[in-house]
Amino acid sequence: MTLVEVWILLSLIVLIAWGLWGFMLKYAELQTSWFHVYVASVAGLLTMHFIAITILALNGKMQSLELNRYTLIAYIGGLFGALGGLLFILALRFGEASLIIPLTSLYPIIAVILSILILGESITAKKIAGIIFVVVAIILISTPE
Fold it and tell me: Cα torsion at 84, 51, 53, 46 (round to 10°)?
């Protein structure tokens, strides 16, 4: 399997995992409080992180962990991710998953803009067209009839 195929495969697994995540949170929220959904979701997240960190430690990867500016940036990124998760669960409490999930899935546009402005990544007409199509699709899916 080439590197291109690996990133596509991993991206498709993420798509499935996050799709299940959003659906399962809304399904649970219909039966219990948003707070219980949040606590249970965080417990699942911590369990997965514990397993991943344990595997990394067993393979000697944790010995080379450096605490520097970039690990601080990653830490702050994790805080934003956690904030997004909390607010996502609250949004599911007040609205329909079929509207909230597509709308919140626009978040990559922020990463694309920042990657162009800060990381100097290139943007092509094809990428711009793709972003526009995604935005239009999300708007069509997210707007109530």
Answer: 30
pLDDT in tens, 70-84: 888 988 988 999 999
| Spatial CB neighbours of 14, under 8 Å, sequence gap ≥ 6 | none
DSSP three-state, residue 75: helix
DSSP secondary structure letter of residue 139: H
Residues 6+ apart with CB under 8 A from 60: none
- Exposed / middle / buried, residue 89 (Cβ in 10 Å: 0-12, 13-18, 19+): buried
- Yes or no: say if 65 and 128 are a contact pair by the CB < 8 Å rule: no
Q: Cα 22 to the chain's mean position, in Å? A: 10
Tell if the pTM clears 0.90, that is, is over it. Answer: no
Strands (E), 48-128: none
